Amino acid sequence: MGWGMMSRAMDSVFxxxxxxxxxxxxxxxxxxxxxHNKAFQDCIGHYGNDIGRCQAYLDMLNDCxxxxxxxxxxxxxxxxxx
Length: 82
Fold this sequence. Notes:
- It comes from Leersia perrieri.
- It holds the Pfam family CHCH.
- By secondary structure, this protein is mainly α.
- Helices cover 74% and strands 0% of the residues.
């Protein structure tokens, strides 16, 4: 009971606690795949929800993201820390 009262008192003084959501996409991957993402978004915008017409763009985007993740993982594993 003491902890709950203290938490409410702190919330009344400092305001309620908030949760911040951070995008987990690395900036390099977002920049590297920007052209593929734009092509896919343009296709979806043109054809609506007919994903079949845009599947090739989605496949290229997913391949780019996997390649970016693999290259950043290999770069991290090859770096040496002293």
